Known about the structure:
By secondary structure, the protein is mostly helical. Helices cover 51% and strands 5% of the residues. Among the domains are: 104-143, no CATH class; 146-280, 3-Layer(aba) Sandwich (Rossmann fold), CATH 3.40.50.620. It has helices spanning 15-27, 48-70, 78-98, 129-133, 136-143, 177-195, 210-225, 229-232, 234-258, 276-288; strands at 161-165, 199-203, 205-206, 269-270. Residues 30-34 have low confidence and may be disordered.
Amino acid sequence: MHSRTVTGAAPAPAPENSTNLVNAASADATGLSASRKDGRDKADVKSEKELDKERKKADKNAKFQAKKKAQPGPPGSAGNKKDKNDKKDKKDQKDKDEGVLPAYVEETAKGDKKMLKSLDDPYHKAYMRAVVESAWYDWWEKEGFFKPEFTQDGEPKAKGTFVIPIPPPNVTGKLHCGHALATSLQDLLVRWHRTQGYTTLYLPGCDHAAIPTQAVVEKMLWRQEKKTRHDLGRPKFLETTLAWVDEYKGNITAVLKRLGGSFDWTRKAFTMMNFSTAVIKVFVCMRQSYL
């Protein structure tokens, strides 16, 4: 059997066949039904999962549009202003109907146990911090509840002692949230050990902070009077500094009491003890002795 080699270009298809091939390729490159189609020239067929996803998306969009319509207009719009005015009018009317209570005045004498009133009292119908907390601390302090408790022989209790000296706040400024947190945690430990039968002491006090205190006083002088410590002179500047210290020691003490810390205020300390005369005398004696 002999094979014959064909040479030359392939014959061109008939014109009508060319048109049919081009149209078929444009509709479906494989000449078959593409995936997700019922057949040639038919629409896509979506799965049940895709249809469910589209339904959820449409529901979500409808809810969003409804919520958007229900919201008040942007700040400054007429609708928003009207809503605010309506709320204010309702609040004013409510205050007028109920009667706004004047500032609370504690009737308990300072140092006495707080007088409790009926819950029908206007100030006790709801929680009011100033009403609930007033008078108690003065009574605790007067009764000496926070002083260390000893045995009849003056010795600590059998359980032992538990003492926390407060990290003394500087008199350069007022207390902040960090002091409140530290005081709360320390007071919790002291009170717990007190209930366990220990002889406890929570020691309050302040730190003079020397150079930082001098710096804040100098800044205060310049800000208020445009003067330096040299303009005042040493005696007047010391007097001004001590006045600052007394004021801020008072502020610190008041805040610590407001926090309810179980401090023994009879032992309040200040880190600048009155040893100046003794120190000067010892220094002069050493100087005269050539030490």
